Amino acid sequence: MFSKSRPSDPVPQPKPTPEPASDLRPAAPAGSAPSAAAKPRPAASVLSSDLMVTGNIRSTGDIQVEGTVDGDVRAQTLIIGESATVKGEVVADELIVHGRVTGRLRGVKIRLSATAKVEGDVVHKTIAIESGAHFEGSVHREEDPLTKGGKPQPPRLTGPSPAKADETAG
């Protein structure tokens, strides 16, 4: 009935149970191949309303700003809360502005909510500006707005027209 286990016998290991997904984003569309190293996304980093940051902030994850930032901010997804103020360039794949930004905004998908106050240029692929948003600046659409300054335009080379070249030759 009871016996000693032999050292060569494998010890039964409990099977790992899958953890519930903490990411509330929609799943990848059907037909797309799941990545081999799919990791759950960590929660967004929150800069609370009593926090003042002087300097640049860079993250490969998500950031939610509720305080004041005097510097550039770069993130995957960036939410600027109603009480937030950012003075500097803001770059994100997805950018949602509820507060105040003074500086350039660059993003693939940008949304200015009704409470947004933006003073600066916007470079985007898609943009939504809600009624009531305050915006002063220019808007430029680019296929890849995350590259600094967008795609460089080739210089235009202009030479004399054929009619003028004939006049100067004879």
TrEMBL record:
Which family would the database say this protein is a member of? Belongs to the bactofilin family.
Composition bias of kind Low complexity appears in: 26-43
Could you tell me where the Basic and acidic residues compositional bias lies?
A: 137-146
Q: By what name is this protein known? A: Polymer-forming cytoskeletal protein
Query: Where do the record's region annotations for Disordered lie?
Result: 1-43, 134-170
The lineage's top-level taxon is Bacteria
Q: Where is the composition biased (Pro residues)?
A: 9-19
